[in-house]
Structure formats: C-alpha cells, structure tokens
C-alpha cells in the first residue's frame, strides 16, 4: 500500500468548540475515514443534535465514498464525539489509541459509570504505535503521541498527519498537558515524532483558536517545516526543558474546558450516552468540586 500518496482531505470546523473534523479519502478507491467527529451539544438545555455529523454524512454521500473507519485521536475534554452516531448510521468501526483504558480507569469512577469497562471495549478497535489500517490504496499509520492525554494518537495517511491536540497552528502552539495522565515532558517528546516527519508533510490540527494578535481567520493546516520553524512553543529547536517550563506555566493559568464534564463521560463510552435511568431518561453527571 502507498504511504506517499496524497489523500483527499475535507475539513469541517465547529466554531462552538473550535474543533476540526476531517473526512479523509483515497481518491482512487473512494474509501474514507472520519477523524474526530462532533456531536452538537447545547449545555444550557442539555440537548444533543447531529447537525455537524450529518454534514459529514452528506459529503460522504455526495462524493460516493465508503466510510471504512471512524478515528478518534483521544478522549476529548472539549466536545462530545459523534462517533457512536456515525457508527450506528454507517456501521463503520470506531478506532482509538489502546491507552484509552487508562483514561477510562481514571474517569469512569468519577462519573459512577458502572457500565464502562476500563478495557477499551466500548470501541471497536484499539491501535498502538506503529499499527496500520488499510484505506483503499492508502495506509493509516498510528503514531502514539501522549502528553496531552496518555491515549493520544496521531494518524499519518499518505503525505498528511492528523495530530489531534498534540500540535496547533504555529502561531498558537501546543496542547495543554495538565489533565490526568498528561505530562509536558512526554508531550514534547511526542511532538518530536511529528517534527521528524518529512518537512513537506501536511499537518492537520484538531482545533484552532485565534491568537491574540495577527491572524483573523481560522485555519487548521500547516506543514512539518512550518511547525519546526515557527511554532511558538516548540519551533526553532526550543529545548525540552524550556518547553516544559513554558508549558507548565501556561497550563497553571488555564481553567477547565467548558464541556469537560459532559464530554469525558460520553467520550469514554465512544460517544454513547449514559444508559437510561429507571425513569427512562438519560442523565449526565456533574460531580461537584472535583475538577
């Protein structure tokens, strides 16, 4: 299978959560993967919707593509995943890094999620560093990139790499590393794996947030060369110790993501909502004074 071919990439930006979902396909065969799909969630009304996911499904239909995989880069703390919904509609399996069991072990007790087994079994396929999946004439290569969370993986497909929250656009920097199981030094070393790829490799990030000065439009694609030279946290050969100091100081100033409590309890279930209570309703848990 080719590792140098150029996949077709379509991006769907959800401004409510600053998340980018990707539809990646092999132009020769029409086989496709969706990366980090978003389930719409209104926190004021506690209502879910599938508008964002349906846009992706419409694009799959319009392009006469066949969805082979639903890929999660990690268990997100800033949006609810639509992986379960897409799996129900298409039958495509949901894939995540094998270390998701560590994340489930941490958070299932917090949400009293007795239905969640801390073995990754809520997902269809667990992948580790170096594992590959077929995508038509292309190959999806897994790169374990922990640091933001222990389960983070990046997916290299042809000349593109999808890095989740490991890296952001060069003028915004890198992911935080202060979540349970996160570590700034580990994150730095994971980033070096990405920066060691060929300089022309296209880098697709999981989120974009506009910097305080300069750029005024959202963006989500850079290159390894641009990240090496210009990333404000790791570019220009910043040392590991300097990065750790910078990252830890920045993380200490950050609050919890707005949707961390709803997101994590859904995402450790691969996007399924909690099971119904005796009254038939589903409930999200909001443990007080714990985050």
Please sum up the structure shown:
By secondary structure, this protein is α/β, with parallel strands linked by helices.
What does this structure look like?
- This protein is α/β, with parallel strands linked by helices and 291 residues long.
- It has a single domain, classed as Metallo-beta-lactamase, Chain A.
- It is 23% helix and 23% strand.
- The protein contains seven helices and 15 strands.
- It has helices at residues 51-62, 83-90, 100-107, 184-195, 224-230, 240-252, 260-267, and strands at 8-14, 19-25, 31-35, 38-42, 47-49, 66-71, 80-81, 94-97, 125-127, 132-135, 138-144, 153-157, 160-162, 202-204, 221-223.
CATH class: Alpha Beta
Structural domain count = 1
Number of strands: 15
**Which of globular, elongated, flat, extended, rod-shaped describes the shape?**
globular
Rg, please?
18 Å
Structural class by sheet pairing and helices: alpha/beta
Relative helix content? 10-25%
Order of helices and strands: EEEEEHEEHEHEEEEEHEEHHH
Distance between the termini: 45 Å
Name the poorly predicted regions. none
DSSP strand (E) fraction? 15-25%
CATH-level-2 architecture: 4-Layer Sandwich
Order of strands, widest sheet: 1-2-3-6-8-9
The CATH topology assignment is: Metallo-beta-lactamase, Chain A
Task: Figure out the total of helices.
Answer: 7
Would you tell me the overall average pLDDT? 96
Largest sheet descriptor: 6 strands, mixed
- CATH homologous superfamily heading: Ribonuclease Z/Hydroxyacylglutathione hydrolase-like
């Amino acid at each position: 299978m080719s590792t140098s071919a150029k996949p077709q990439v379509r991006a769907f930006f959800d401004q409510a959560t600053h998340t980018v979902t990707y539809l990646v396909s092999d132009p020769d065969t029409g086989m496709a993967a969706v990366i980090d799909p978003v389930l719409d969630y209104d926190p004021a009304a506690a209502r879910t919707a599938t508008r964002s996911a349906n846009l992706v499904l419409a694009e799959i239909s319009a392009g006469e593509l066949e969805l082979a995989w639903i890929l999660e880069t990690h268990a997100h703390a800033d949006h609810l995943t639509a992986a379960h919904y897409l799996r129900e509609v298409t039958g495509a399996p949901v894939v995540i890094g094998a270390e998701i069991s560590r994340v489930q072990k941490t958070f299932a007790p917090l949400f009293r999620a007795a239905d969640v087994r801390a073995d990754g079994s809520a997902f269809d396929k667990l992948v580790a560093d170096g594992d590959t999946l077929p995508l038509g004439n292309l190959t999806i290569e897994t790169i374990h990139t922990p640091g933001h969370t222990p389960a983070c993986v990046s997916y290299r497909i042809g000349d593109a790499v999808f890095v989740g929250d490991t890296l952001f656009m060069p003028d915004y920097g890198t992911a935080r590393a202060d979540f349970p199981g996160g570590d700034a030094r580990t994150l730095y070393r994971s980033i070096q794996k990405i920066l060691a790829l060929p300089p022309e490799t296209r880098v697709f990030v999981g989120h974009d947030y506009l910097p305080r000065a300069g750029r005024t439009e959202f963006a989500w694609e850079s290159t390894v060369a641009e990240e090496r030279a210009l990333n404000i946290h790791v570019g220009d050969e910043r040392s590991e110790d300097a990065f750790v100091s910078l990252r830890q100081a920045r993380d200490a100033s950050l609050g919890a993501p707005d949707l961390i409590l709803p997101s994590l309890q859904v995402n450790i279930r691969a996007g399924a909502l909690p099971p119904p209570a005796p009254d038939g309703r589903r409930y999200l848990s909001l443990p007080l004074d714990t985050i």
